[in-house]
Amino acid sequence: MSRRLFLGTASAAFLAAGTGTAAAVSDSIRRRARQWTFENDSLKATVTYERGGIQLTQLRNKRAGRDYLSAPSLLFAHELDGGDTVRADDEGWRLGATSTEVITVRTQQKSWRVGERVRIPLRRTTPRHFAVTLVFEIYDGDAGLRYCTLVRNEDPSSDLTLTRSTILDLCLPDEPHTLHYVPNMKWFSTRGSLSTEPVGKSWPKKALTVYDTGDGWSMSPELNWKTQRGNSNYSNDYMLPPFAGINAWHEQETVSLDTHPESLQLTLFPGEEFEYLAVNLTVFKGDVVDGKMADELHFRKRFKYHSTTTLFHQNDWDYRGGPGHELPPGYYYDVVIPQTKRAGLDMVMLDDYWNTTRDTIEPSDSMKKSITSLATLSKSLKDVNLGFGVWFSLTGGGHLQGRDLADPAQLAYKRRQIESLINDYGVTQHMIDLTEYWQNEQTTAYSHAGDNVYRKAVLTRTMLNDLVTKNPQYLPKLTSELDIAPTQGDRNNGLLHIAYNGWNTSNGGITGEDLSLRTALTAFGHLPMNSTYMNGGKMTGRMEDYYSYMAVRAVKFPEDPGDATKWPDAAVKLMGVFNAWRRRPEITALTDGQFLPVYLGQGWDTAQGDSSKGPYVWMWADAPRRTALLIATAAGTAQTTVDAKVRWLKDRTTYAVTDITIDDDGTQAQAAKGEFTGWQLRAEGLPVDLSENTSKGKAFWLEAI
Predict the structure, then answer these.
(1) Could you tell me the pLDDT band of residue 23, with boundaries at 50, 70 and 90?
(2) Do β-strands 347-350 and 387-391 pair in parallel, antiparallel, or remain unpaired?
(3) SS3 of 194, please?
(4) In contact, 299 and 553? CB cutoff 8 Å
């Protein structure tokens, strides 16, 4: 059956609906009769209910001064049990009572508002007793709109299967444009259309369109990377597509998000309601960098990021868990903790094989020799102000094994264990690894083959988000192994696997299992920079390397701190100097904020970029754009000079630029580099010469005068 099943003719009546006075529900949501308008600094979107149907009737780019919708657009369509199709714009829906709530971010010290959510419930009785609640989240300031639905089977005795769905179908103009898309990690572009077919071995998961008029929109559905078929019972064809795919003007006049039925057919039990797929929409004025930046600003609020200064952690996999080594008695207290503290790192993490089995929170006898107990280790770390991280499987088994996370009872059991790690042992970071989203092909009391993997992903994220909300110090990390049994050198993550304020490992075939700066920077605008991770932290004694670690959310230092060849004294001392500077209040006041790209490799701001050719430059700035910190590094590449064009400051403000680089001997510069207007920094750039220092890394402080 063609996906075009769901493409229908929009009714002009929706455009004329609701001509009365609008009532302000809040600063960002207004309601007029049966019409809701969502607005922030960037966009204005309107949803209209008329004659038993509901549609999106406006998607306005405020800065570009244009409404992108050429006609009212479809908000959902579902094929029920392989037969009848119900659409949001047909005449069978009854409107229920709407509700709104504020979206907040909470830390241990405070909370603040980032947006608002409105729920619009609809229900019908023919051809089935079925309800859909539309959920719109409008985020404050420069951000976008998130949309999802809750689907409910209101039949008290029979299951109901959504055999295929259109999640959203927008009448966006197919005018001259460049469409940027991401099948895996690397960006591609086309002047034409985009189909839901794979590009190579991966399926596009994002569409960002820049019109030749210098404005555009972005669609970012919250998807998995790929969908596991079975649990090792298929020798091939076990990598199914993600749950849905984007079609942008391919054999249709619209841009739609449609499910892949081979990967997702949600079966609702009698009376059951479940969350369906979500999509994020942003608009922008400018080029592709402005489009990616619009998504980054939105993602920061949508995923509730805060306190995002890079977390450096010592990880024991390479010298204990991986090789299966038993460490000497007291090794963590005599070596690991003192060295970690001396280097100024932030956390010690126990990787896999620390517990009696992967399903318990009891250290093995071998582990007890080096840590005594979790309680003893926790207290020792807390006493020296170090965080405590653990690898802990949710399934309790290896790849494609263990507990079925689609079962709420199994998740409840694992949640109790996680809460014990948090409350009893002070765990602050939790790594979730291995292929946990395998497919149970059997029908059970909680899932069916067509939705088992989807339920795992949604229920796990919901649990983690709730844990973060209740325990803001808890930082979840989900690795790129979750979806598919290890495909070394080519595995990735999706927006569906990002928990509040957490991070992920991503590979995507950029630099293989070396999760490098290049891999992380490729994520910009696709996966949030606040979710990026590097696994190759080393005590090299080179500021070129140390500065590169600042770009991402977390860096793993995997080498044995007791090996003087891997942790040489001078390099550890330099790392301590660097981290003492990095943790100064005036530095973290900036680095806790939004990553701002300046130059991410050759051609980074075009459709033909080459990230293998540096250097790499980025910055952070305060909200009024009075101060900024700019970092530049060659990160192992040969290039040494660049005119770093800064587009994020105020054109008419003059900035004094000071070189504050820490050199490889631990001394720090205080060299005035001149005064530049924001316009000069944007048009001409800041001249950066990395050869001025022993290794090719630099830091600059910019201050408005």
Answers:
(1) low
(2) parallel
(3) strand
(4) no
Integer Cα distance of 57 and 68 in angstroms: 10
Beta strand segments in 564-615, E: 596-600
> For residue 535, what are its two tokens?
């696994």
Is 54 in contact with 48 (CB distance < 8 Å)?
Answer: yes
Q: Looking at the domain that runs over 21-302, which CATH code has it been given?
A: 2.70.98.60
CB 478 within 8 A of CB 499: yes
> Which positions ≥6 away from 696 have C-beta within 8 Å?
544, 615, 633, 634, 640, 690
Tokens found for residue 642: 């660049």
Task: Give residue 96's region: left, alpha or beta (phi > 0; psi -120 to 50).
Answer: beta
Domain borders along the chain are 21-302, 311-505, 596-704
Q: Which residues of 577-591 are buried (b: 16+ CB within 10 A; e: fewer)?
A: bbbeebeeeebeebb
Cα 169 from Cα 72, distance rounded (Å): 10
CATH classification code of 596-704: 2.60.40.1180
CB 259 within 8 A of CB 244: yes
Q: Specify the 3-state DSSP secondary structure of 581.
A: helix
Mean pLDDT of the chain: 95
**Helices marked H in 280-330:** 288-302
Q: Which amino acid is at 157?
A: S
Residue 265's alpha-carbon distances to 160, 260, 421, 444, 515, in angstroms, are 10, 8, 35, 15, 34
Q: Which residue has the tokens 């309800």?
A: 131
3-state helix, strand, coil in the chain (%, to 5): 20, 30, 45
* Residue listed under structure tokens 């572009």: 189
Q: Which amino acid is at 41?
A: D
Tokens representing residue 684 in the block: 């001409």
Provide DSSP, 160-178: EEEEEEEEEEE-----SEE
Tens digit of each residue's pLDDT (9 = 90 or more) over 245-255: 999 999 999 99
Strand partners for 597: 618
Write the class of the CATH domain 311-505.
alpha beta
Average pLDDT over residues 406-429: 98
Are the C-beta atoms of 360 and 367 separated by less than 8 Å? no
- Count Cα atoms within 13 angstroms, Cβ side, for 526: 27
Separation between Cα atoms, residue 195 and residue 183, nearest integer Å: 11
- pLDDT tens, position by position, 248-300: 999 999 999 999 999 999 999 999 999 999 999 999 999 999 999 999 999 99
Helix (H, G, I), strand (E, B) or coil at 545: helix
Helix (H) or strand (E) holding 591: helix 585-591
Strands 347-350 and 311-315, by their bridges, are parallel
How would DSSP label each residue in 49-69?
A: EETTEEEEEEEEETTTTEE--
Helices (H), 334-483: 337-342, 365-371, 374-383, 408-425, 452-470
State how far the Cα of 231 lies from the Cα of 243, in Å rounded to an integer.
18
Q: How far is CA 242 from the centre of its chain?
A: 16
- Angstrom distance (rounded) from CA 388 to CA 371: 13
Determine the 3-state secondary structure of 496 from DSSP: helix
In single-letter form, the type of residue at position 177 comes to: H
